[in-house]
Structure formats: structure tokens, C-alpha cells
Amino acid sequence: MKELLIEPSIGKPLARVDGHAKVSGAARYAADFNQPGQAYAVIIQSTVGLGRIAALDATAANEVPGILAVISHLNAPKLAYKPHHSPLDPDGERLHVVQDDRVHFFGQPVAVVVAETLDNAEHAAALVDIRYEAQHPMLRVDAPEAQPISPNADLAPRGDADAAFSAAPVQIDAAYGIARENHNPMEPHATIAAWLDDRLTLWSKSQFLVAEAAEMAAVFDLPVENVQVINPFIGGAFGTSLRTWPHVTLAALAARYVNRPVKLVLTRRQMFSETGFRPRTTQRVAIGALPGGQLSSIVHEATAETSRYEQYTESTVTVSRYMYSCPAVRTRYRLLPLDVSTPIFMRGPGEASGVYALECAMDEMAAALAMDPIDFRLRNEPESDEGAGLPFSSRSLRACCELGAARFGWARRDPRPQSMRDGRLLIGWGMSAATYPASRAPSGARARLLADGTAEVEVAASDMGPGTYTSMTQVAADALELPVRSVRFVLGRSDFPAAPPHGGSMTMASVGSAVQAACLAVREKILKLAIGKEETYGDIVARLGGEPIEVEASSAPGDERSRFSMHGFGAIFAEVAVDPDLCTIRVRRMSGAYGAGRIINPRLAKSQCIGGMVGGIGMALLERTALDTRDGRVVNASMADYLVPVNLDIGDLEALFVEEEDPYVNPLGAKGVGELAYVGVAPAVANAVFHATGVRVRDLPIRIEDVLGAV
Ligand code: MOS
């Protein structure tokens, strides 16, 4: 076998291998896969928040030119909806669309209109006359009649946190709120469905291709191998495409009903009510400390909204169990079932919300103790995960604080609120710690060596923007000892070897480990076939007749989770400027320092972290989905009314990585940064707003009116 001197690719800031395809328009997203003879579907949504459909009249709609069908509970075939549970689906029973007259939330799909053109379909949809028997939906998390439920047993408390809090010489006890938020990726949800006999092909936006195939098989009672989901490119998702929402079922149902391929694209407005959201969450954090800064108690309670038919839960309070050393900790998590649709994971789900409350309370406590916020945190740095009773596989919070503080210039901070100015502007500096679990799930991968000396690697994974195509190419190239230009990594088909959900920052750890395993295995296989030292892979394949040499392998977690507590950590620093007359709040700069294990591609990882800061600035200052309290209509369901950060909202953002070697998390030693990047941003900004203004705003987003009159 010829010795090739190839420099390792892992760790190099390789540019995106799919960058040219994306900027040149060659990359094809779900809605780009137009099929010959396709028809167009438009969803009709309920205009009441609770009740039933009393009458539905499609007479006028059926006279529109090009109309093919108006499908509602009156004429829809009964769908099998066989029991099916994707690993990410919440407990409960998913919405069954157009199967009965019940309305569970405002904006529920109640009918789908199919026509020759999109214009025909929209026109016809507007003519469908629906009358409802409406009831008053329960929407408010503070409604007196709301009944919280406990979705899972509360984790065992450590010590008596309530008694320790009462006895603590210094106490902070505060309530924090986070508004409901919608993901708002640039690319809308879209599905093109086509049937060939009893085989269904879906070109469909998805972060979890194999689960979408399995769910459609269950809904339509098909063998799972009869369903193929194709989705090579995703224009952002942030969690909203981690489950198969009703529009996918409606597209497939419509295609079968009219016996033609059908294209269904959600409007921006529909995406506010059809495809999940970060739940509105209220939290109480009560922490007690000794005058020297030692924590004596943490109580962390959270209540979040969910639908009546599913219990979406997230790990909001679990961070408080391991983040700091503390003898007494009690956490409690409750859900409030309301007449709303089901929430879903969004940008650092759970941890982003929980760390926001904990880290704001930590900042309040540092102020009460007259301690520097970093010193206070490091004073309580734990030796191990005291909640799980396990050592950390690695924990670089101290190094992150030191690196981030040095780069940010934290030593020059005057701790007194309203003490720092730039001209007439009030300047605030705030910081927060960040953490997110380093998880991993089983994944497969297939590697193939070709006669031309190149390699192909296939996994049913997704790339919603982090750069999976690129980082997997690097992992494969190093395992095969080939240059990256000789490796073609392919994802986005559900019939490739199965991958776990493209979420929870698991893709590099899970898919990357499988890609590495498959490439090492195919390399071992071909090396056994080599007969001469000068032979290349291509020579061997060609000598054996040219048939590619292929290996499918898988990689799964071992027992590391029972031996180690595994998390990424970070320290986030923010500078805000507050105009004392207008009370506008601007984030001028941020530095984030992260300990996330091995960084496969620093350019991509930095890009993710900067994206996380932008998303976190949205959470802190802009994003809020507002419901009409009478009926649950989303009143700001447009990009004009739902505010997200734009370029002018963003200052200088910097992401730094500390050296961290973690031999335990997975074979690559990579913890993932996609979610960690969102965590800690909102509290850093909120703490900076306090430092600038002296006002503690505990409900996100922080708006002009919250600080008006105080500065
Ligand atoms: Mo992420 S919220 O798991 O897409």
C-alpha cells in the first residue's frame, strides 16, 4: 500500500464543501423538487381556539377553475394512525388531521384544498365557508383554573434546600419569565408528496428523516421501506423540523386523494401555529449563600405551557443540579396543559431557558454579596457532578471564564450599576456561564471505495446549517487517509444507514463516530486485499474488477454515561449600550469562550457560536410570540411583527475555544456546540442591562418600556 503523506483534516478551518452549491442556487431544498404533473395544496386553519366545526360548505370553492379537491373531515379517508412513537415525540397522542370535527387550538389544520395552480388553490381555500361552535380556550399560564401536571417524577432533592434557603444569611428569590418564541428559519416547511402504487416518496424538510418515514408508514399503514424521505438541504430549522407535523400527512393524503404528486408549502403565518414553538416558561430560582460567597441552597422550579393532547417536556431545571457545588438542591418541573398546539425543541431547548433563570439569579446574588460575578461562580466550582454523583468527563468552565474575561477586558469593569458610560450612552457589562449535555445516539454509516481512487460515505443524516457535509468529509478523509477532495459525503435520504435526530448537538458525536467507524472498517478491508506496497485504493479496486468495496458500520454509546457526567461548558460576556433618553438597548459586542471537546472545524464551530449569539440576542431583547388572549390567535405571525435580530442589531461577536481533550464522550472527543451556543447569551445580555441601568428585568424579551423612566 502506497504511503501517502496527507495532513490531517480534522481541526482545519475548511470552507464549506457545499458552499458553492448554496450560493450558486444549485442546492435543492424540499420545495425545489417539483414533480411532473404536480398539483398544489393549501391548508385551511381553524379561526377559533377551541370547539368543533358545525358546518363546512365547499360549494363555491368547488367551482373555482382548476380545483381538484377540498378535503376535510367530511370526505377524508380514515387514516390508520397506527401507534408510533419517535424517540423525540412527547407523551400523549399526536394530532389526527381531518379525521373529526374537533378544534383543539387556533390555527389547527381543518381542511386542505388541492388545485392545478397555487393561485387556484389559494382562491378556492378563501371560498370554503366554515362555521364553528366555539368555546373559550384556556390560554394563560396564570389562569387560576389551570391545573399543572408533573410529566415525570421530580428528581430526588439533595439535602433540605428549602430549610437551607430560609437559614441562609444572603438570599435571592426571584421569578423569571420567557416568552413563547417561534423558530422562524428562512426556509419554510415544505413537502412534495408522490405515490407510486403503495410507495410514497416525500421531498420534505426534516431534521429526522428516518422518523418521518416511520411516522408516515404508521399514519398510512405502509411497510416502512415503502416510504422514502429525501431532503439534501435545509435552510435553517433550529428544532422545528425535529418532528413530522400535520402538513406532511396532509400533503401525502392530498396526493393520494387526487392521484397526482402534490406540493404543499406552509406560509410564514402558518408556521407560527403549525410547527411548534419554545414554550412560555415561568421559573422561580431561590438561592442562599454565606457571606463569603459559598452557596448553601438552590431551589429551581419551572412551569411551561404544553398542549392538552401531548406533554412536551424539556430539561429546564436539570442544570441547577450540577452547575455549581451546593449541599442542598431541589428542582421541580411542571407542565400546564392549555388549548394550544404542542411546543417543540428550539435552540438550546430546556438549558437555554433554565440557565437564563439560574444565571440571572447568580448575578443578583453576586451583586448582593458585593462579589465579582466570575469570582462568585468560581468560588462554587464543583469537583464533580454532585447531582449525578459522577465525575465530569471534562469541565472547562474555569478556563472559559479566564479566556473570555481576558479577551473581553472584564478586569476594567466598574461593578456599580450606571457607572460606565460612553459619551451619553450607559454601558453595561454582563456575563453568564453556559452548559449543554454532550449526548450521543446510535448511528450507522456506509463507506465505499471506488476504482477512481475516491470514496463515498452515506448516512441518513441532515445538515440544517452547522456544516455537517463539511465536517463529516473531514472525519472520513482522516479515517481513510485521503485528501478531502477525494471524499464525497452524502446525506438526506431516509434509505441510507439510519442516523439519530439532527438536533440536541448530537450529530458530530453520533454520525461522526459512525462515519469514522465505517471508514476505518472499509480501510481495513481493502488493506487486506493489497498485494503490493505501491498500490493505491483505486489500484486495488480496479485490479479486483472495479466493483466498489463497501462497508456499512455503526457506532453507539457505551457505558460512558453511567461513568461520567458529560457536558460542554462556556462563559459568555456581553456589552450593551442603553440610550438614556430613548431607552433603546443595543448589544455592541460579545465574547463567548467554550470548552466543547475537540473542535473538528474551527471555522464552522465559530460560525455556529456566532449564530447562537444572534439567536440569544433575539431571545433577550426581541422575540416574543403574542397570543390574542380571547382565542389564541398569534397576533404577530409575520416577520414584520415578530422581531428577530437583523444585521444592524448585531455588533462584534467573537467565539473562542479552550483546549479540551475528552477521551470519554465519544471516539472523536467532540461535544458539539450547536445548542451550547444559545445557552448563556440571554442571561449575559440581561445581566449587562442591569449593569447599565440598575433595573432588573426578569421577563424576556427586555423591551424599551421595561427600563423607561429608570435611567
Ligand atoms: Mo435543536 S433545538 O435540537 O434542532
Q: Main traits of this protein?
A:
16 helices, alpha+beta, Aldehyde Oxidoreductase, domain 4, 7-stranded mixed β-sheet, single chain, 26 strands, 711 residues, 24% strand, binds dioxothiomolybdenum(VI) ion
Can you offer a commentary on this structure?
The chain has 711 residues and is an alpha+beta fold. Helix content is 24%, strand content 24%. Helix 10 packs parallel to helix 11 (507-529) and helix 14 packs across helix 15.
Summarize the structure.
The protein is built from 16 helices and 26 strands. It has 711 residues and is of the alpha+beta class. The relative contact order is 0.14.
Q: Looking across the biggest beta sheet, what order are the strands in?
A: 3-6-1-12-9-10-11
The Rg value, from CA coordinates, equals 27 Å
The oligomerization state is single chain
Principal-axes geometry comes out as globular
- As for the CATH topology of one domain, it is Aldehyde Oxidoreductase, domain 4
Provide the helix percentage. Answer: 10-25%
Find the CATH superfamily of one domain: Aldehyde oxidase/xanthine dehydrogenase, molybdopterin binding domain
CA-CA gap between termini: 73 Å
Low confidence ranges: none
The number of helical runs is 16
